[in-house]
Automatic annotation (TrEMBL), chain A:
PANTHER family with a match to the protein in the record: FROUNT PROTEIN-RELATED, NUCLEAR PORE COMPLEX PROTEIN NUP85
Family: Belongs to the nucleoporin Nup85 family.
Keyword terms, alphabetized: Membrane, mRNA transport, Nuclear pore complex, Nucleus, Protein transport, Translocation, Transport
Keyword Lyase recorded: no
Cell cycle recorded as keyword: no
Localization: Nucleus, Nuclear pore complex
Subunit structure: Component of the nuclear pore complex (NPC).
Lineage: Eukaryota, Metazoa, Ecdysozoa, Arthropoda, Hexapoda
Name listed for the protein in its UniProt record: Nuclear pore complex protein Nup85
GO biological process, alphabetically ordered: mRNA export from nucleus; positive regulation of DNA-templated transcription; protein import into nucleus
Pfam families membership: Nucleopor_Nup85 (PF07575)
Automatic annotation (TrEMBL), chain B:
Natural source organism: Tetragonisca angustula
InterPro entries: WD40/YVTN_repeat-like_dom_sf, WD40_repeat_CS, WD40_repeat_dom_sf, WD40_rpt
UniProt keyword annotations, A-Z: Nucleus, Repeat, WD repeat
Protein name: Nucleoporin Nup43
Cited SUPFAM superfamilies: WD40 repeat-like (SSF50978)
One Gene Ontology CC term in the entry: nuclear pore outer ring
Superkingdom of the organism of origin: Eukaryota
Residue windows of the WD repeats: 223-245
A Pfam family reported for this protein in Swiss-Prot or TrEMBL: WD40
Subcellular location: Nucleus
């Protein structure tokens, strides 16, 4: 940015002069402004916070099409980059795709603009100007940088470019010609304007056709003009002659025309004479006709056509400079076009960033040129900075899109293609996205997974888990914790289950816990919870033997949390007291060992006597049973 | 992009797209639902001819919806039900007279919510059987509704301790739900107890979410479910709940599974990975009597009888929804575009 740029000023309403304001970033493109009271001030505290954000035109519904469609082309270019061989024709195709997207956008804007009310019209017209200029500049860049111009003679393409963007006078000419009335100059007041317009665009066939309709078309002066125009040599790379050969031929033709002019051959009609002077390459006449052009580059094309038809790209800048200086053109698009002709890409990029399209143009254009291998930008110290520039523009554009509630997926696909800082930026922005429904969260996770950001996946899953916990949905919290594969968090949630059981005597979310499968191994506490749940399951369907062995294995597993010992031990009592002997003598010894080690829980104090008694009775029964079994 | 695929950018991400089927002719109208905007829309489209004789979709009318549209299902020719991410289900009609517009006939507000915090919960899906509607949500609740009645017929509040992601009406009294953990539950609606008739797993190996369920149009006991890992699993629920076949299909989550309604030997699947596949078994003639009497989906993974073709180049954003009418398929994508694929060989 230039040093003399004045930063934009925004007035904050209702702030008296003596108050200070201060601001904080809300996210990457929002800033919160609030009043700051001086110490000891008697002023009443005002809690209003103003949120400032740049207006992003790309977010308007009419332009979202452009954003999404061009995203597709951008991604397709990224695929080409990895292909070896001559990719230039493919890239040219993509450049044309970008332009056709721009055209479609302009057309749909015109369509809406015609139908809408005046208050919206202004902004739509503003969009139209912006994208019209972008398309114009893009087209020129495509000619000069992306396309391969045969023999490096750029004039034919330049003329095509001019004709494409300033079609109005040719349309008038075609209208006049369609009527085929002799004496068209008398019928149509804009007859000469059309002729001059066509002459400036180098459409000589149209000029001749128009002159043939003139009321004095049979006059020798008009016949001679027709002859001159018919014999004008036009350079064609495939014409079979060299540039030098062509130049000689053309110079001869021009000399002849000049001598005719000097002998006042065309004096019968001033307009005709003026046009012939233009065709003979007279500078003054060119400037007289400048009133019939809308932009300096229209004049440039005419000048080249009549004075320097074999102009090559390097010579372009000199002519461009002369004309644009005299024209005093200084819209951003004028400057950009001049810079393009001067082959000063650095300046081009700087100018197009002022076009007010939120970086769409700069990012996509630079990416295309980068893919073409045409981007060579040197900084002040003559160090090549093309890579950095390319990355920073795409990064900024992606960053802007990430700030939108719906276009964030699109934004992410730009950030992914910034090799240096892209992923780091994506990491930060993904985490700052509002979460919303689980469907949305899954899409965010998907992007994180694609880019191997495991810690982001974990952290988002944990946030979801915590959210579920706040909503009182322990089961869902556990499901997210398992997705996060964070054993600490899983342990924490499993603990919540066990504590709730300890308090209310009921296991929640049995449907989930009974179907954990191998996920149970994710943490020791969860294994304990899963197995304990299994114990209840067995007990409730009457599989006491199975239940008992589960209980004993839980007791010896050493996984039991301290607060849960009393429950486990209490659970053993009915099994010990069952009619059949379920627990063996060795099980009983284990139980006794456990109660010695862990039976000092206060909650268990009133049961400890019963427990000991039950164990003793069961042990007696078990020993005698086992003794009998050994004998047999 | 292949020649028979035509895209239209619509400036909103499409979560659902559904044909409005006609009785004896090709459908020309369809509706879309959007997501991720502050106010979303359900839009009615019609295919029109432009000056060049090309058919293109044009908006007929649209209707603002709060929250993301999460499902759209037609229950008759012009009545459809839609669910939203703020836990509401609406019954709308495409009203033709005097001019085409949407008319809301019923709205079940916030029937999915978290009881603890009283926050709304996303209604993740719904399924219909004639006039009956069943909706599921992130709150793990199942709501049974019927088109003519404001009060839900029945709510199973703790149907699942995790978020339910998908639902399918198998028979008039039987529904199948799939949740975040890939637990599939069959519910017998005649049973007053709020417990599933059977529970089985989407996949034993990987605990991935069930994202979509579809049943065979004529053999309703044949059920296909898609997983968050892109897998497809097929069950024959007459026999048992062990999958008939299971295969890794898409690279990422399956977003929708669709049987061709008239030619059920064609199956279509789309995915978050941007893939759109056509599974076709037409060469396996229906007339030839298969001695083993196995369903074609049974052998989907093991032999080469099934053709799988990609209907378009992979999209760079998730494809969220598909629908087919005869040989014309529609799909909606997160790149804010809708696409039509014509002349599919079915």
């Amino acid at each position: 940015m230039d040093e003399n740029d004045s930063p934009p000023t925004i007035d904050i309403p209702n702030v008296p002069k003596h108050l200070r304001i201060t601001g904080n970033w809300v996210n990457s493109n929002r800033i919160g402004i609030y009043k700051k009271l001086a110490k000891g001030s008697s002023e009443k505290y005002d809690p209003t916070v103003y949120i400032l954000r740049p207006e992003i035109i790309l977010f308007s519904p009419q332009l979202r099409k452009l954003v999404n469609e061009s995203n597709g082309v951008f991604l397709s270019i990224q695929k080409i980059k990895s292909v070896s061989g001559d990719v230039r024709p493919e890239l040219l195709k993509h450049s044309k795709q970008y332009r056709s997207i721009l055209r479609a956008c302009i057309e749909s804007l015109q369509d809406i603009c015609g139908r809408c009310l005046s208050d919206k019209k202004e902004s739509l017209e503003n969009f139209l100007t912006i994208f019209y200029q972008i398309e114009c500049v893009w087209h020129l860049i495509e000619i000069l940088y992306v396309d391969v111009v045969p023999g490096d003679v750029v004039l034919p393409q330049l003329l095509e470019w001019i004709r494409f963007h300033f079609p109005s006078r040719e349309l008038v000419a075609v209208k006049i010609l369609a009527q085929k009335t002799i004496g068209a100059d008398l019928e149509y007041p804009n007859y000469w304007e059309a002729v001059i317009g066509c002459a400036l665009h180098g459409k000589l066939d149209l000029v001749r056709a128009l002159l043939a309709l003139h009321s004095k078309a049979d006059h020798p002066a008009f016949v001679m003009a027709e002859n001159v125009l018919k014999t004008m040599p036009i350079y064609n790379v495939y014409g079979g002659y060299s540039i030098d050969g062509f130049t000689t031929c053309w110079k001869r033709w021009q000399l002849e025309l000049c001598s005719n002019l000097n002998s006042k051959a065309f004096i019968v009609d001033t307009n005709l004479e003026m046009i012939m002077k233009l065709i003979a390459g007279e500078q003054d006449m060119l400037w007289q006709f400048s009133q019939y052009t809308d932009a300096w580059y229209e004049l440039l094309a005419a000048k080249l056509f009549y004075t320097c038809p074999c102009c090559k790209q390097p010579e372009l800048s000199l002519h461009a400079n002369n004309i644009s200086k005299r024209w005093q053109a200084n819209r951003p698009s004028d400057n950009a076009i001049r810079a393009v002709m001067e082959s000063n890409l650095h300046h081009v990029i700087k100018e197009i960033q002022y076009m007010g399209d939120n970086g769409w143009f700069a990012a996509h254009l630079v990416d295309l040129l980068y893919a073409c291998g045409k981007l060579k930008i040197l900084d002040r110290d003559q160090v090549e900075v093309s890579n950095q520039l390319h990355e920073s523009l795409i990064l900024e554009y992606g960053n802007t899109l990430m700030g939108h509630h719906s276009l964030w997926q699109c934004g992410a696909s730009y950030l992914i293609h910034c090799p240096v800082q892209g992923l780091a930026r994506l990491e930060i922005l993904l985490q700052s996205l509002p979460m919303g429904s689980e469907a949305r969260v899954n899409k965010i996770l998907d992007i994180a997974r694609d880019n191997k950001m495991d810690h982001i996946v974990t952290s988002i899953c944990k946030i979801q888990g915590l959210k579920s916990m706040k909503q009182g949905r322990l089961g869902n919290a556990l499901a997210w914790a398992l997705k996060a594969q964070d054993s600490g968090f899983i342990t924490y949630i499993a603990d919540q289950f066990l504590k709730r059981y300890a308090e209310y005597g009921e296991l929640d979310c049995r449907d989930l816990l009974e179907n954990l499968g191998f996920c149970m191994m994710a943490s020791d506490r969860l294994t304990f919870l899963g197995k304990y749940c299994e114990f209840h399951q067995m007990y409730s369907i009457g599989e006491f033997k199975e239940a008992a062995s589960l209980l004993v294995s839980l007791l010896v597993s050493n996984l039991t949390p301290k607060y849960f010992w009393s429950i486990l031990l209490s659970d053993a009592i009915p099994l010990l007291e069952a009619k059949d002997v379920i627990l063996s003598s060795s099980d009983c010894f284990e139980l006794l060992r456990c109660v010695e080690a862990h039976g000092d829980d206060l909650k268990f104090q009133n049961k400890i006597e019963i427990f000991r008694l039950a164990v003793a009775r069961n042990l007696a029964r078990a020993l005698s049973l086992e003794g009998c079994q050994v004998e047999h | 992009m292949s020649e028979n695929v035509q895209g239209t950018f619509v400036s909103e991400k499409i979560s659902k797209i559904r044909w409005k089927h006609e009785d004896f002719e090709d459908a020309t109208n369809f509706i879309t639902g959007s997501w991720d905007d502050p106010v979303n829309k359900v839009t009615h489209w019609i295919f029109q001819m432009n000056d060049d004789g090309e058919s293109y979709p044009a908006v007929v009318s649209s209707y603002a919806i709060l929250g993301d549209v999460t499902e759209i299902k037609f229950i008759s020719k012009d009545f459809f039900v839609l669910s939203t991410s703020i836990g509401t289900v609406r019954l709308l009609q495409i009203h033709e007279n005097p001019y085409s517009q949407f008319k809301e006939h019923m709205s079940w507000e916030f029937i999915h919510k978290f009881d603890n915090t009283n926050d709304y919960a996303s209604c993740t899906g719904l399924s219909t059987f004639e006039q009956d509607i069943v909706s599921v949500g992130e709150d793990g609740r199942i709501n049974l509704l019927t088109a003519g009645q404001k009060q839900p017929v029945r709510s199973i509040n703790d149907a699942d301790s995790c978020s339910i992601y998908c639902i399918d009406f198998l028979r008039h009294n039987e529904i199948l739900t799939g949740n975040l953990r890939g637990h599939m539950k069959v519910w017998d609606l005649r049973n007053d107890q709020d417990l599933p008739a059977t529970t089985f797993m989407l996949s034993d190996q990987s605990k991935t979410e069930a994202t979509s369920i579809a049943h065979h149009p004529t053999q309703r006991h044949i059920v296909v479910a898609g997983g968050g890992d892109g897998s497809l699993t097929v069950w024959d629920l007459r026999h048992n709940t062990y999958p008939m076949s299971q295969l890794n299909a898409h690279a990422k989550a399956v977003s929708e599974i669709l049987f061709h309604p008239d030619r059920p030997e064609n199956l279509f699947t789309c995915s978050t990975s941007g893939e759109l596949w056509h599974w076709n078994n037409t060469q396996h003639s229906k007339l030839s009597l298969d001695p083993t009497n196995t369903h074609w989906l049974n052998t989907i993974g093991t032999n080469g009888k099934v053709n799988v073709t990609s209907l378009c180049n992979a999209m760079h954003k998730p494809i969220n929804s598909i629908d087919i009418d005869r040989s014309t398929l529609l799909f909606g994508c997160d790149n804010e575009a809708i696409y039509v694929v014509r002349n599919i060989t079915v």
